[in-house]
Amino acid sequence: MKKIAIIGGGAAGLAAAIAAGNELARLGAAGECEIVLFEADPERVGRSILATGNGRCNFSNAHIDPACYRNAAFVEAALRSLASLSKASGRGSAQSAGALEVPCRGSAQLAGAPKAPSQASTQSLGAYEIPVREGVHFASAYEAPVQRFFSSLGLIWREEGEGRMYPAANKASSVLDVLRAALDVSGARVEFGKTLRAIEAPARGKSRFHLRFSDGSIAHAEKVVLAVGGRGMSAVEMPSAIPCEPMRPVLGPLATDSRITRQLNNIRVKCAVSLERSGSLVAREEGELLFRDYGVSGVCVFNLSRAAREGDVLSIDFLPQMSDSDRDAWLLARRKHLSTRFGENGQIAAEDVLRGAMLPQVAQVLCKCASIDPARPLSKKDALALSRVIGGLRLAVRGIGDAKQCQVSRGGLLVAAFDPQTMEAPVLPGLFAVGEALDVDAPCGGYNLHWAWASGLLAGASAACGVVVSADGEGEGE
Length: 478
Ligand SMILES: Cc1cc2nc3c(=O)[nH]c(=O)nc-3n(C[C@H](O)[C@H](O)[C@H](O)COP(=O)(O)OP(=O)(O)OC[C@H]3O[C@@H](n4cnc5c(N)ncnc54)[C@H](O)[C@@H]3O)c2cc1C
Hints:
Blueprint: E1 2-7, H1 11-26, E2 33-39, H2 47-50, E3 60-61, H3 72-87, H4 97-100, E4 122-125, E5 128-131, H5 144-152, E6 157-159, E7 164-167, H6 172-186, E8 189-192, E9 196-200, E10 209-213, E11 218-221, E12 223-226, H7 229-233, E13 244-250, E14 254-256, H8 258-261, E15 268-277, E16 280-292, E17 295-297, H9 299-305, E18 313-317, H10 324-341, H11 350-354, H12 360-369, H13 380-391, E19 393-400, E20 408-413, E21 431-433, H14 447-469
Parallel strand pairs: 1-2, 1-12, 2-8, 12-21
Antiparallel strand pairs: 3-7, 4-5, 6-7, 9-10, 10-11, 13-20, 14-17, 14-19, 15-16, 15-18, 16-17, 18-19
Helix pairs in contact: 1-6, 1-14, 3-14, 10-13
């Protein structure tokens, strides 16, 4: 029997296994090929999913923009390929099932899949009945296949700020639950405690890859979907034909000059942060920033960490709702107002002027940075100097602050070696790579998991299709 081996049972691997199973069923070839998911974890798949989104799993985004991904052109082509898999069936417009169909079209009805409320309001996707309400706005081609995949699994979600999508149950476990139920139905077999050490290309004239595991065991498969994630990738020995970049953590906190940050350790502020290099703006983010004794953290810092280099400068604007001139005018007016009403001899201290605009600890530190004693009367000149610091506290970047907190790894398999139509390596047909194993990453907001599901679905369906089409590999000894 032929074999599809999926290596890694995280987000991308689970999507790949489910899609492969469904595609084999759709092609009536489930009995001709087995799907085996090899997972390093000794007892469960999808453990990595449980930690995402602070345990809530921000599993996708309602506004996927390929431009925000590293290797954007490759990602865009892959997302388009996934969307066009459904178009290939020749059904419907962008608002109907044809364009939204996902490649997981099986003969089995999934446990928990939504029941069709009426003929007129449903679209049949193989055996999945997915309700499509009249007039409901459906996502663009970039989001739709993943949304339809989860809808078909029975997941209900809600959208939060900036299009972030979370399961309605507000628990990452509910995403994993529907995936595990679908995995059971897909017919894939899971082998736990199997850590891939090396992939060897098929010998000349043969079609089976050799998979060597750290426990000394070997497996063979016609199709291999590599879904080991970023951290897993650094420990896998690849065939030399597949170029690979060393992995490094990104999407995490930044280490900075800590003289200031350690005085504000554990304080959160809503602010705007600009990343500057040689006096030029590299990127800007608004949101919550968390001061740490080693530097800064928070979603806006995580996003900037994708572009940050040692020697860059972070400039923090504590009152981003005001322009420079508005802030100057506000400080001067407030100083004048307070000193007239409450000041001793018509004078007022800086800490009194800043009261209500920011936490006292933050005000103290900003005054110190502007070389002002917060308890002393604030002169007009000092007020303008303080305004400059409030609008742009500058911190020198030293690098990633805490690699363990980083959400993704950059590097891994170079996308140039893979075909975004299928996720297969043209130089080594039969080898597919998905998710974070590839050199693709994106900002916070559900984009990284979206990529994992989308690339996994595409590779799983393509591998299943390929194994059925190919007549090779039968009868090869293991
Ligand atoms: C704390 C945290 C929070 C995050 N939150 C979000 C979020 O809310 N939204 C979002 O979009 N992204 C989030 N991410 C990023 C997201 O989790 C990843 O981008 C995504 O999980 C990548 O999926 P993957 O399947 O490629 O890899 P993974 O999910 O890492 O899965 C890899 C799997 O392969 C297994 N494995 C590893 N090596 C081997 C091997 N050699 N052999 C066999 N099996 C192996 C692992 O055990 C694991 O099960 C978060 C990341 C972290 C760390």
